[in-house]
Design a protein that fits this description.
Strand content: 5-15%
Radius of gyration: 22 Å
Number of strands: 5
Number of helices: 17
Length: 368
């Protein structure tokens, strides 16, 4: 379902009239709100049941998966949820139904029913499932007086860090701390390897991840453990956890370098501005999430990976033809992602420069 925003409905969740909704959650919400007859099983329900489903899929605008995998910035996660809770629009039944729905959603993410069952029985360690269940109580803190979206998110990240086995010591403080905690949660694997890989990144990549992953998309909110810079839009790399769990398991450093350049190129398409400090955009990497770093880096003379701007608030990393780079509008709508091991290239360049300074003939230099 890829609905186009109708003029009679005006803007919807930041989408403008005439734009196609590519995000599946927002697309479903738009159809439930404005075209319910397109879903006969929903349209046939009693009004009260329809309202519970709309609350779950549309009114809260809350994605539990974004929290448990630290995928989104705090505003994208909690802004609407907090308003709904504080306004008294959420009944206990609606909240209970939401968390039930979340479990079925996890299983339903698999393409076949038996695989959905296997996901819980075979692929979900009991410890991980328990952490997800316990996270519900942290989410409820959003209604505590004085709690902000950023503070609740930070509490969650610290709780996940403190729950790691084997332990990694005290939760990090200072520049890059939010990025490290989010990346460890995303990877759901060898946390120590992820932290080591983060420290071994080229400085410019570490800086990009530290900055972009600590963006707070709510005006004048910030973190307690590191300085927050105001501006936006914040960038949500959709399926970054899947990328870290597949590519990052074999090559965490390579996956982090790739993720850093996705952020870098997305920022070029959505430049930082103070006026966008309470906004966020999503960039999908679903075409990368099933590949290893080696497979992503495999060269194709006629193809390249690029961040493509799909709408004013959506983008995607796609495989594009290099011939397309010569067409009009390329620079404003696309940015090539550097998938190379830049540190490896720099090392070869240093070796070549040293060899040249020593007077070695060019034929003895290693090919880059």
């Amino acid at each position: 379902m890829l609905p186009t925003i109708s003029k009679k409905h005006g803007t919807f969740r930041g989408y403008k009239v005439g734009e196609v909704i590519n995000d599946h959650d927002a697309a479903l919400a738009y159809i439930l709100e404005h075209h319910p007859s397109a879903l006969p099983s929903y349209a046939a329900l009693a009004r009260e049941q329809q309202e519970s489903i709309k609350f779950t899929q549309s009114k809260m605008e809350y994605n539990m998966g974004w929290l448990v995998q630290a995928e989104a910035p705090p505003g994208a996660l909690f802004r609407k949820f907090k308003r709904v809770i504080e306004s008294g629009q959420a009944s206990p039944q609606d909240l209970a139904f939401y968390f039930t729905h979340w479990f079925t959603d996890l299983a339903g993410a698999e393409p076949f029913p038996t695989e959905g069952c296997e996901k819980f029985v075979l692929k979900f360690p009991k410890q991980v499932l328990n952490q997800f269940l316990l996270s519900f109580s942290i989410v409820q803190n959003i209604s505590v007086p004085g709690a902000t979206e950023a503070s609740v998110y930070e509490d969650y990240l610290q709780w996940r860090w403190d729950s790691l086995k084997p332990a990694l010591g005290p939760a990090p403080m200072g520049k890059g701390s939010i990025a490290k905690m989010r990346l460890v949660v995303m990877a759901q694997g060898d946390s120590e390897a992820v932290v080591r890989a983060f420290g071994a990144l080229p400085e410019e990549d570490r800086e990009v991840l530290s900055t972009e992953m600590s963006m707070v998309d709510i005006w004048k909110q910030g973190w307690s453990r590191e300085k927050s810079e105001f501006g936006g839009p914040a960038i949500l790399v959709y399926y970054a956890p899947a990328l870290m769990q597949k590519a990052g398991r074999q090559d965490p450093r390579g996956a982090l370098m790739l993720l850093a350049d996705v952020f870098r190129q997305a920022r070029a398409l959505w430049p930082l501005s103070e006026s966008a400090g309470s906004h966020w955009v999503s960039v999908r990497v679903d075409q990368l999430k099933e590949l290893t770093v080696k497979e992503i880096r495999e060269s194709n003379p006629s193809k390249a990976w690029a961040v493509t701007k799909l709408t004013s608030r959506e983008g995607a990393v796609q495989r594009v033809s290099l011939l397309e780079t010569h067409t009009g509008g390329w620079d404003t709508n696309h940015r090539i992602v550097d998938v190379s091991d830049r540190a490896d290239v720099e090392r070869h360049e240093r070796e070549a420069a040293a060899a040249a300074a020593a007077g070695e003939p060019e034929g003895q230099l290693h090919a880059i």
